[in-house]
Amino acid sequence: MKGNRADVQAIKERVDTIGLISRYVSLTKSGANYKGRCPFHKDDTPSMVVNAEKGLWHCFGCGEGGDVIAFLMKIERLSFIEAVKRLAAEVGMSFEASDDGEREKLRRITAEAAEYFAANLTGNAAGKKARAYLLERGYDEASWKRYGLGYALPGWDNLKRRFGSRHGEATLVELGLLVRGDENTYDRFRDRTIFPIHDLSGRPIAFGGRAFEGEPKYLNSPKTPLFDKGRLLYGLPWAREGLAATRTAVLVEGYTDVLTLQQAGLTNAVGSMGTSLTQGQADLLKRFVDDVVISYDQDAAGGAAAIRGMQILRNSGLGVRVVQLPSGEDPDGLVRREGAEAMAAAIRAAVPFHRFFVDRVLAEHDRSTARGKERILDAVREFYRAVRVPTLREEIERHLADLLDLSVESVRRGLPRRREVHWSDRDAQGAVESWGEEEVLLSLLLRGEITWDRISGVATPEDFSEGNRPIAEALASGVAELSALVDHLDEESSRRASYYALAPVRFSDTDKAVRDALARLVPLPEAEQELKDLTKQLEEAAEAGDWERWNGLMERKIALKAKALTAKGDE
Ligand SMILES: [Zn+2]
Hints:
Elements: H1 5-14, H2 17-22, E1 28-30, E2 33-36, E3 48-51, E4 56-59, E5 65-67, H3 68-76, H4 80-90, H5 99-123, H6 128-136, H7 141-147, E6 150-152, H8 158-167, H9 169-174, E7 178-180, E8 185-187, E9 192-198, E10 204-211, E11 218-220, H10 236-246, E12 248-252, H11 255-263, E13 269-271, H12 279-288, E14 291-294, H13 298-302, H14 304-315, E15 319-322, H15 331-338, H16 340-348, E16 351-352, H17 353-364, H18 370-385, H19 390-404, H20 408-414, H21 437-446, H22 453-456, H23 469-476, H24 482-487, H25 491-502, H26 510-521, H27 524-544, H28 547-568
Parallel strand pairs: 12-13, 12-14, 14-15
Antiparallel strand pairs: 1-2, 2-3, 3-4, 4-5, 6-9, 7-8, 9-10, 10-11, 15-16
Helix pairs in contact: 3-4, 11-15, 15-16, 19-20, 21-25, 21-26, 27-28
The chain binds zinc ion (ZN).
């Protein structure tokens, strides 16, 4: 938790952004901003831009960015609280991290819950089926202890009755142990095998629960003051030695994948808890290793979320390879059926991730025809655009040229040219080329050129993709002040926000840019289709004399028309 937001904001407002960053980076004035060589990557052209008024910085070379707190955290390797305390001292304010004691309390309760689940596993008759399941998977009693495994009893209020009066239901809800329903609170984890999730020092901070039947098969703790899935890796405390020894992480998806690999002696296995890797996880991995080997099941590995995650890892400077498992196989299954050596061999045979991606695309198209080649280049385009490492881009070009029997030159012509964005007026419109509608809208919003009202009649935060949605949500909730907005966002989102706010982009016709972007964000054909449907349904309702239904449909139609008009502008 970010302490008291109002206090943090008051401290930030007093900090001299330029003065602070100047201690580490030599800044020169450039228009309304300052620029300098980024301290977070090898920067030959000054790629870092600082805006004093907005209190934001962003590096257009490596993508780092955020507010002064983010800068101090990154350069001095401080925690959020440490950075805020340091800034508070500088501006002569005091900052009591009111939640230091609070967090400790939450940690203790979580540890108690973990002990409770563990006791259910070994000391409760109802735990029998969990014991049987774990033994059958090859986890003996020693490993239950080592990994802190447990069992959540069936029923809605076992944990609640045990802890509710002692710790307060509100606290248990905050920790994700209880869920608040319409009328009452109840246990989140019921009749599930429990895998505690530990922080770096090995203390339990959250839980994953596996069902014996029914959905969802896996249930995690939600985001809590202690736990943020995007900043953690499952099994890290047990993997630290293995990671240090190999400088390589084997990244798997699930809890049992991690445990089975750990038990089989592949001690550098850690779990990403899902396939959508985040920048926070990439930063964490970078502290321990140079290379990552992704070992998801094949369908998940090829999914858009996983590919995006691999891009994040690669752009963070990590080597990324992908293990190719037989279809339908996961690491846990492979080790149990064919032994640790089979898994080790699969890891050794892992292919670089760009090769993995390109080969998948190739498998889907006919590369013997010109049309097929064109389609392949089309399919690679988005992926290629997101690759920031020049040598890697060249490798992709060569690989494609080889496989498509084309010259490197013609492959290059078929792929988008990537323009390095420099902060000078000459290149002022440079970034637009690679931007989509979401980037355009968010950048205009974050720079105050338009307000959320301008688009709220047409678009909602849900229209934005996952990565941009938190920013859209914060804007829609009325947080207009940029440096306050960053406080509402996690690290990855504030990095994006600083990028959109400081990117050197100018639109000759803002109004047109907004209209075009909205039309693409909320495509009209669908709305028009719905209008047609509604007209037909209105006729039917009128014929049937169902005027209540007719009224409802009419309201919907009026709303849709208004939406369409706003999107088209005032034509
Ligand atoms: Zn940089």
